[in-house]
Every structure is written in C-alpha cells, then in structure tokens.
Task: inverse folding
C-alpha cells in the first residue's frame, strides 16, 4: 500500500464522544476562525489575504495551511487552468447539460451533476496519482532503479486491471496537447522532479510492453505535477473536479440560455434498441 501525505492520526469515533459525554472538541477546524467583524484563514486576517495574495496563492493557503513559494504557486496555477474545456469529450459536461436542459430554473442542479460525473474514466487524476506514489514507494523500499520500478508497476497494472492509468485518449492518439503543455511548463518552472520523472519512466515501460505509441493524457500529467507538489490522491481527485467546475458552469449557463429543453438521444444520434423482438404474454397467464 502506497503512503501519501496525510493528516493527523488518532481520530476518535462518535462512540467515544457519546461514552465520555464530553463534546468540547467534537467540532474543530484548523482552516478558519470567525468572530464578530473578523475572519482569519489559517491564522491570517482575510483582509491581508485579499490584498496581498493572488487567487492561486490564497487557495493554496486555504488547502495546505501555509503560504506557497512563488514556484509552487506558479506550478499549481498551471494545473488549475490547463484543463479548461474540450467541447463534449468529457462526460461531465454532457451530464451537466442533460440536467440543465431538464431543470433550466437554476444552474445548481446542472453544476452538481457535472461535478458528480467527474470520475475515474472522466478525467480524475487520482488513479494515476496512486500509481505514482505506489511506484515511488516500491522503488525506495526495494532499492530499484526508476526503470525497474516502472516496469514492475506496468506489469502489475496490466495483470490486475488490464490498463495503466494516465495514458491514452479517445481523440488525441499521438499527443494530448494539454498534457504536453502542462509538462513543458512544469519543466520550465523546475517542477518536474523525481515522481514526475517516474511517471515518464512508466510511460516508456508501457510503450515498450505494448509495442505501440500511446500518449500521456492530462489526468496523468496533472497527477504527476500534483504529486510533486505533495498533494494527497484524495485531494488531487477533488481538486480536478473543482478545477473543471468553471467549464461546467459555462456549459450549464450556455445550455440554459441557448440549449434545447429536455435533451434526448434519438435514433439519429445513436440510440438503438438491441433487446428481444416484439413478443406477447401467453393467454394462460
């Protein structure tokens, strides 16, 4: 089992609180504090955050608890804006528009549907992040070279799952432009370190094993960059969904303003019945 950056251990169960009857620290947070007329986030007055930090820096502080370096902020900002949108390739955009077409009174249901549709086959970097952390732990634990660890991981994933996360794309067969852009910019900023290079070694091992070219996809490169920044796979999954959220908002608003109420899938667009031919219930039933 791979080890990731994690929070404090020793969490208590609800039974512990009920047994002791002491609820003093049942609701606690390290994130923010609010009193009459004042708000602090991670200990910093909100006014200072708004006046002195960029959006990326402020969000990093909110998530990580400390101010980012200039390098960290620049690299992380890349991951937040590189996904943008890709027409209707993402199932999340389609799910959002379907719901918005049936509920044009408010954008919220459509946006929620788009977020909920963001999963392991619709752009989540979490599987690739878990793979990278697992490969890195294997390399360190067994003293393997990067190439040997990569080959081991590829063999394991192909045997157990049949695929390796972070590679391949339905329309970009040679180069995924967003993935290559993020990798190049991360390299220019000095953010393509050991874990990201291990991801590249996994890519090379997979291509050699399959005997054909296979592009890295955006989820894989986002995972590599986030791993370099020290994010947990759980955080990485959530951040990817939130990052794509702006595109979901754009799709939902466009659907409500300009789309077709109650979208359907007619035969002309691929709907096809493949069940039994017409049949009848016997008279003796």
Result:
């Amino acid at each position: 089992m791979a080890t990731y950056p994690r929070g404090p251990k020793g969490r208590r169960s609800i039974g512990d609180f009920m047994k002791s009857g002491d609820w003093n620290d049942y609701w606690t947070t390290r994130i923010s504090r609010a009193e009459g007329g004042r708000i602090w986030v991670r200990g910093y007055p909100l006014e200072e955050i708004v006046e002195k930090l960029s959006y990326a820096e402020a969000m990093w502080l909110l998530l990580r608890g400390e101010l980012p370096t200039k390098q960290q902020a620049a690299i992380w900002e890349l991951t937040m804006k590189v996904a943008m949108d890709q027409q209707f390739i993402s199932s999340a955009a389609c799910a959002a528009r379907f719901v918005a077409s049936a509920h044009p009174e408010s954008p919220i249901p459509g946006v929620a549907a788009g977020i909920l549709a963001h999963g392991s086959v619709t752009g989540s970097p979490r599987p690739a992040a878990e793979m990278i952390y697992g490969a890195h732990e294997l390399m360190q634990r067994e003293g393997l070279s990067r190439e040997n660890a990569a080959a081991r991981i590829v063999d394991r994933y192909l045997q157990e799952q049949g695929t390796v996360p972070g590679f391949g794309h339905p329309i970009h067969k040679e180069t995924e432009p967003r993935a290559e852009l993020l990798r190049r910019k991360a390299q220019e900023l000095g953010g393509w370190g050991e874990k990201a290079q291990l991801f590249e070694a996994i890519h090379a091992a997979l291509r050699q094993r399959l005997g054909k070219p296979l592009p890295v996809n955006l989820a894989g490169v986002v995972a590599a960059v986030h791993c370099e920044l020290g994010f947990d796979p759980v955080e990485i999954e959530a951040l990817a969904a939130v990052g794509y959220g702006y595109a979901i908002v754009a799709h939902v608003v466009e659907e409500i303003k300009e789309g077709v109420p109650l979208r359907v899938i007619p035969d002309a667009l691929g709907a096809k019945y493949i069940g039994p031919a017409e049949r009848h219930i016997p008279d003796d039933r």
